[in-house]
Amino acid sequence: MKSEIVTPNGEFGGVSADVFVQRLSATRRGARLARLLAAQQLRDWGVAAATTDTVELVVAEFASNAVRHGRVPGRDFELRLVPARDHVRIEVSDARAEREPQPAGCPDEGGYGLLLVAALATAWGVRSRCVGKTVWATVPLP
Question: What is the dihedral of CA 26, 29, 32, 36, to 10 degrees?
């Protein structure tokens, strides 16, 4: 599977950096691959290991939710990483606009993922698209 590198997005860590975009199958395997690809891309960009671990957790949660709650048969989900000077923006898009993620008020057997995202990211949210939605978060760089 070949990643798509989009036009340059300014400087990142003193060097020009690109936006990373990859479409993945809406399966558990696709969600796992999203996390692994995100970690590799951050290492390629020279991002510190602690930040890479944080981004991996956020990508894992968003990709898992895209597969579990945002899946439409025959449709993929998309991972996008956008580097900036002081943060990395993570975006995961799926095809189900009507199922927006909500942190669980009183999680019992699950539902902690978005609470974890809220604790790790400086901001997160949801925006609609022509088809589906995009869940995004920003993770600060040290």
Answer: -110
Q: Please provide the average confidence, as pLDDT, over all residues in the chain.
A: 86
Degrees, nearest 5: CA angle 15-24-30:
110
- Give the contacts of 71 (CB within 8 A, at least 6 positions apart): 26, 77, 94, 95, 96
Q: Let me know if 121 is exposed, middle or buried by CB neighbors in 10 A (0-12, 13-18, 19+).
A: buried
Threshold 0.90, pTM exceeds: no
pLDDT band at residue 28 using 50, 70 and 90 as cut-offs? very high
Beta bridge partners of 112: none
How many C-beta neighbours within 10 Å does residue 127 have? Answer: 11
